[in-house]
Amino acid sequence: MFVLIARSFVFGIALLLAGQAQAQAPATVPPERVKQLFELLDDPSVKAWVAEQRNQDAGSTGAPAEAGASPTDASSGAVAAPGQMNTMASSTLDRIRHHIERIVRTLPLLPGQFARVRAETMDDMSSKGAAGVFILIAMFIAAGLALTWATYRLTRSFRLWIIAQSKDTPIGRAKKIGGRALYSSMLIVSFALGSAGAFMLFDWPMLIREIVLTFLMAAVVTRGVRMYVMAMLVPSFMKVENAVEVRALPITNETADHWSYWLPWIVGVFAFFAAAFILLPGLGIDQDGMMVLSLGADFVLLLLLLLAIWRRPGTQRDGARQSGHTEATWLLTAYFVVLFLQRIAGLYTYFWFTFAAFFLPLAIVLTRRGVNFVLRPGSEDVGRPTIPAVTIAVVDRGIRMILILAAAYFLARVWGLNMQSMRDSDTTTAFILRGLINVVVIALAADFGWSIIKALIERKLGIEMPHPVTSDEDVPILDSQQARLHTLLPILQNMLLALIVVMAVLMMLASMGIQIGPLIAGAGVVGVAVGFGAQTVVKDVISGVFFLLDDAFRVGEYISSGNYKGTVESFSLRSVKLRHHRGPLFTIPFGELGAVQNQSRDWVIDKFNITVGYDTDIDFARKLIKRIGLELAEDPEFKNWVLDPIKMQGVQEFGEYGIVLRVKATTRPGGAFGMKRKFYVRLRQVFKEQGIELPFPTVHVQGLQNPHGAENAPLEEITPELKMAVAQSHTNRRRKKASTTE
User: Fold this and answer.
1) Which of 37, 252, 578, 701 could form a disulfide with 586 if both were Cys (CB 3.0 to 4.6 A apart)?
2) Could you tell me where the DSSP H helices lie in 62-87?
3) How far is CA 510 from CA 405, 410, 426, 443, 515, in A?
4) Is the alpha carbon torsion for 605, 611, 617, 620 positive or negative?
5) 110-124 and 206-233 helices cross at what angle (nearest 10)?
6) DSSP 152
7) What does the alpha-carbon distance between residue 635 and residue 700 come to, in Å, rounded to a whole number?
8) Rg of the chain (C-alpha set)
């Protein structure tokens, strides 16, 4: 705060120096009526009217403009010479030239204006003087700091409550940031009451009251910005434990320290200049003088911004990150230089648009990063608590909407747009602006509604997603209702998105004065024509609707239809995607599915055969199979899949080389494959231990008739290839017979 005192002291010295300069340069202030005439001729609406009248005169008489035209008209750019086109570019250049001429014309007059301000100010402050005013400001700033210190001492319990909040949960981090913001507000209010509030308790001369109170409010603004920046960024000099995790933005300590230092400085200088510019018109500085002084203030702010940008720490000091950091620095430098040049040229409309075009997206991006960072899931130590996605979406989109509406209102104010007059006006410009405002409001409302709907659907899908087995009690399957949601919600999401987009576009067109009735009727006619021309697509869509209504299959289920089989992965409005168990992905239109066989609904029965020798005790084999089935049913790997353990149904048939036993198991869909493989391994081991033989086909060749009429073929002619062919023939015949019996 003592920096503000020093700035006020420098301002007083500048006033004194201006008085000395006045003694050397006499004041030549133009008459007031002449100044009003210049301001009237500088009005864009007056320029446009004069240009229209001159063009009409030139077109009707064919003569050049009168020689007696004023120089101001010639320099304003509103009047085009004969044979030339009065374009927007030339008019803008003429306005820039005229603005710069005003600056050059006003510069020699500033010392005289400052001398007059000094004389009038000294007359009104004869009892106090400049030094007395500085002392008053310093005294009340010190009083504000004293009350702030007392508030700090009395709120120790609240600070301890903020420190006690958990940094490992999103709610705890939000409470920490909210508590720090509330605590900063308390300190700011204390400073304002101790400084400006205490000053207003006394009766002061009007001029002293205005000067001291204005600069005290500038000190309050600077103090407030510093407190809020520290509350959000938590710089390292605050000595906060785990500061990186409890900040409002995901930034490093170096970045937090940098902006915690420079932002209060920039805002403090801006607040000081703003306080001075509030006071100077009442002290006698005219509009042109204020314009020239504002350029000096802009130059000082530009230097501070460039220093802050060039001294900001980078993410990394080597490699591509450092190159990107340097490029961003140069781009920011060029941006702020362009802003400064626009101020010099007097292009205030373009200046505010350029200003908002950068800072509004920056604020939106920082808001999104801050919300996602503060409300991120908690740590593993506390069970990773989370905030519902709907809450995050509402907070993010709500702040974004507020920022956009605030920016639009700010631009309307600085551009001098009156909403009431725009609503009552019938001009083309007012009509376009009304339409643009309505379009922005509708787009924001649509985005806000869609973000909430999307968050609700994603939350539902995220909660119901299948999870890996972590204990014996977990069932690694989807509930029927969950699978139903996974099937219908993505389709519902796409339909709602299309509906919101269509409704938003129609409302935007209606707000701009376009009749949407004929558009809707035309769209209906086009829809009928497209329906007749794309009957296959319509058939696919309608078939898909009925498949979903019949609940024929769901996402994650294994189905087969005709030549297609696989697991259902996703849907669209006209087709379904099936992933074959070997990897290929089929995209099948609903109209081509036909009858669907669902192999993943409720339960499945798997039946298979086991062949034992003819000398095997069937009852003993049945008991062994039952025992193995019960063991597998209690195995943690298969426990949650088994509905009815593996057991023998009886003798299926007498085969060519053994007795065929029929075995079956009832499981949940998808659970029989691994258990069946393990059952075979376990059965072979147990049968071998109990002496039960598992027969297999063998070939015994007694002899072959040779072409020479020998009764038996020689043993050398029975080759291994011949034995393999005969064995393969027996195996194929056995498999074919087994498949037909099943």
Assistant:
1) 578
2) 71-76
3) 21, 26, 17, 13, 6
4) negative
5) 110
6) H
7) 43
8) 43
Assess whether pLDDT exceeds 70 at residue 51.
no
| Type and span of the H or E element at 723 | helix 720-741
Strand-by-strand arrangement of the 558-561 sheet: 585-589, 575-579, 564-571, 558-561, 597-598
One-letter amino acid of 552: A
Q: Please state at what angle helix 253-283 crosses helix 2-24, rounded to 10 degrees.
A: 40
Flag whether pLDDT at 704 surpasses 60: no
Full 3-state SS string of 236-292: HHHCCCCHHHCCCCCCCHHHHHHHHHHHHHHHHHHHHHHHHHHHHHHHCCCHHHHHH
3-state secondary structure (DSSP) of residue 732: helix
Question: What residue type is 56 in one-letter code?
Answer: Q
Helices and strands in the chain, H and E counts: 24, 8
Q: What are the angstrom distances between the C-alpha of 31 and each of 21, 37, 72, 244?
A: 22, 10, 16, 62
CA separation (Å) from 630 to 200, 331, 651?
Answer: 91, 73, 20
Q: Are 443 and 508 in contact (CB under 8 A)?
A: yes
537, 574 in Cβ contact below 8 A?
yes
Q: What is the pTM of this model?
A: 0.59
Tokens coding 49? 């009217």
Query: What is the full DSSP assignment across 607-655?
Result: EEEEEE-TTS-HHHHHHHHHHHHHHHHHSTTTTTTEEEEEEEEEEEEE-
Q: What is the DSSP string of 318-378?
A: SHHHHHHHHHHHHHHHHHHHHHHHHHHHT-HHHHHHHHHHHHHHHHHHHHHHHHHHHTS--
Cα(684)–Cα(703) distance, integer angstroms: 34
The rounded distance, in Å, linking the Cα atoms of 342 and 330 is 18
Token pair of 386, please?
Answer: 């989370």
Q: What is the pLDDT of residue 726?
A: 65
- Show Cβ contacts of residue 207 under 8 Å, excluding neighbours closer than 6 positions: 121, 124, 125
- Answer whether residue 264 shows pLDDT above 80: yes
Alpha helices in 512-607 (DSSP H): 517-533, 535-549
Rounded-to-integer distance, Cα 437 and Cα 645, Å: 70
Left if phi > 0, otherwise alpha if psi is -120 to 50, otherwise beta: which for 42? alpha
Beta carbons within 10 angstroms of residue 395's beta carbon:
19
- Top mean-pLDDT range of 386-395, 513-522, 582-591: 582-591
Q: Is 705 helix (H, G, I), strand (E, B) or coil?
A: coil
Q: What are phi and psi of 612, to 5 degrees?
A: -120, 165
Structure letter (DSSP) for residue 576: E
Strand 564-571 to 659-667 pairing: unpaired
Other CB atoms within a 10 A radius of the CB of residue 58 amount to 17
Q: What angle do CA 471, 472, 475 make, to 5 degrees?
A: 90
Residue 463 has pLDDT above 50, yes or no: no
Is the pLDDT assigned to residue 11 strictly greater than 50? no
For the segment 77-82, the average pLDDT, to the nearest whole number, is 40
- Amino acid at position 560, single letter: S
Q: Is 441 exposed, middle or buried (0-12, 13-18, 19+ CB in 10 A)?
A: middle
Reduced to 3 states (helix: H, G, I; strand: E, B; else coil), residue 383 is coil
Buried b (16+ CB within 10 A) or exposed e, 377-386: ebeeeeeeeb
Contact (CB, 8 A) for 51 and 91: no
Using an 8 Å Cβ cutoff, are 253 and 243 in contact? yes
Average pLDDT score over residue span 500-506: 85
Per-residue burial over 684-714, b if 16 or more Cβ lie within 10 Å, else e, is eebbeeeebeeeebeeeeeeeeeeeeeeebe
CA distances from 545 to 13, 496, 538, 596 (A): 83, 16, 11, 15
Q: Which two tokens stand for residue 409?
A: 């209102």
Report the 3 state secondary structure along 154-212.
Answer: HCHHHHHHHHHCCCCCHHHHHHHHHHHHHHHHHHHHHHHHHHHHHHCCCCCCHHHHHHH
The pair of three-digit structure tokens given for residue 34, joined into one six-digit string: 């002449």
